[in-house]
Amino acid sequence: MNVPNTITVLRILMVPGFTICLLYDRLLLALLVFAAAGLSDALDGLLARAFNQKTPLGAYLDPIADKLLLNTAFVSLAVLTIIPSWLAVLVLARDVIILLGFLVLLMTSHRVEVRPTFTSKANTTFQIVTITAALLAPYCGTVERLLNIMVWATGALTCVSGLQYIRKGGRIINDKGE
């Protein structure tokens, strides 16, 4: 396994530590672990491109690591009532729908290219900012006041992104005449 893929696996292994920090009300430590995971995401991509070490395994592992961290964060923050439960449900539902659509396309012999859309990238950014804000809110009044706006914006963008993927999957199936 190359260095970028090893870093991605380490990001996956950070998820339990992040969750434990949340469960024991160590929000600043959880934020540091979350930030380290974010930096590892940037680092593995940079190294893979810079040293021409992109691999099919990395193409699958990287989004899995991202989704594992983000979904765990949303569920944990919702259980702890730091963010609204409906937002965690939207985030999870979107990802499950995308995964099921991906599996349907594979099972029906459609070629599937794993490439996020601009809206999806914006959605991921909003999700990361919302999680970061939720972890910082108890320590910063300004962030606390803005958190509700971030939550609603993230919810809206999650819906738009999910609908875009549903439309994209429908087009792929219809283009093949099935």
Question: Would you give an account of this structure?
Answer:
The structure is a single chain. By secondary structure, this protein is mainly α. The chain has one domain (3-175): Up-down Bundle (Four Helix Bundle (Hemerythrin (Met), subunit A)). It has six helices and no strands. The longest helix is centred in the C-terminal third of the chain and has 35 residues, at 141-175. The termini are far apart. The model has no long low-confidence stretch (mean pLDDT 92).
Measured between the Cα atoms of the first and last residue, the distance is 39 Å
Main structural class: mainly alpha
The CATH topology, please? Four Helix Bundle (Hemerythrin (Met), subunit A)
Question: What number of structural domains do the residues give?
Answer: 1
- State the name of the first-level CATH class: Mainly Alpha
Q: Write out the CATH superfamily name.
A: CDP-alcohol phosphotransferase transmembrane (TM) domain
What is Rg?
17 Å
Strand content range:
under 5%
Could you give a short account of the major beta sheet?
A: none
Mean pLDDT level: 92
* H/E element sequence: HHHHHH
Oligomer: single chain
Apparent shape: globular
Number of H/I helices: 6
